[in-house]
Amino acid sequence: MPPPKPQIIRVIDLETTGNAPPAHGVLEIGWQDVALGADGLWRLEGEGGQLFVNPGRPIPPITQAVHHILDEWVQDAPWWQDVARRVLDPYPRRVALAAHRADFEQQFCSPNLSGGAEWICTWKCALRLWPQSPAFSNQVLRYWRKPEGLEHERGLPAHRAFPDAYVTAHHLRDQLNEAGVAQLLEWSRQPGLLPRVRTGLDRGKDWREISDDSLANFLTDRDADVRFTAETERARRRGGGFVGRPDAQELLL
Which GO biological-process labels does this protein carry (predicted)? Predict the structure, then answer.
């Protein structure tokens, strides 16, 4: 019998000229693999990598101030279409791709370029698994969680493609070991389930603490994550589901 296919998930991070194609282009892609070991535990695999990409347009100063990539660094780099497929859909085939706030990466990494791969969003999964975190950015989770084995300097500078992918891979590794692939994919297909209210008079409160009238106002919010969380909390109050993890009393029931 042929050997089983390796179970590998590739973490992706992009630096771009702006928030959405086709008005904006990719400047840099970084990646780091996470693989399932024979002992059933997920670990970082290999050295990862980074490539510059020619975005086909000048880099706006407002985005340069975030990632500090210069036009001259990318002017002779290959085009995105010539880079993307070999990074996003390598051999052997990855179980899934992953990114922190994966909705952003998916705008640039079309199914045609990624081979139709499924995506895990480590941000959405962090909301579910670590609701006590003070915030859920890649870097806040890094310093709040202090993942085992994360080499501080290798994860710097922040807002560059490989260091960010490297940090995200540590979050993904721990999420996989806690919840498994199928659960992370399921959560990633849904909007984000927010542990706390983000705006208004109830800002900072657990959703279970706010009044019915306040909750009703969030059911028509423009933000899909807010609407989804409000709908989930309403379902809990009507006898189904919960926001975040159940407390000890709910587990007993």
Answer: DNA metabolic process
For residue 231, give its domain range.
207-252
Rounded Cα gap, residues 129 and 144, in angstroms: 14
31 pLDDT above the threshold of 90: yes
Closest CA to 187 of 124, 118, 138, 136: 124
Cβ atoms of 180 and 172 within 8 Å: the answer is: no
Decide the pairing of beta strands 96-99 and 42-52. Answer: unpaired
Instruction: Tell me the two tokens of residue 223.
Output: 């933000």
Whether residues 64 and 140 share a domain: the answer is yes
What single-letter amino acid sits at 161? A
Whether 188 contacts 120, CB under 8 Å: yes
Are residue 170 and residue 74 in the same domain, yes or no? Answer: yes
Q: At what angle do helices 138-145 and 161-179 cross, to 10 degrees?
A: 60
Radius of gyration over every alpha carbon of the chain, rounded to an integer in angstroms: 20
Domain membership flag for residue 2? no
Tokens representing 192? 């984000």
**115-124 tens-digit pLDDT:** 999 999 999 9
Indicate whether 215 belongs to any domain: yes
In degrees, to the nearest 5, what angle opens at C-alpha 227 toward C-alphas 223 and 232? Answer: 150
In a domain, 194, yes or no: no
Q: Which amino acid is at 106?
A: Q
Percentage of the chain with pLDDT > 90?
89
| Contact criterion met (CB below 8 Å) for 120 and 98 | yes
CA-closest candidate to residue 26, choices 62, 77, 72: 77
Query: Residue 249: its pLDDT value, please?
Result: 41
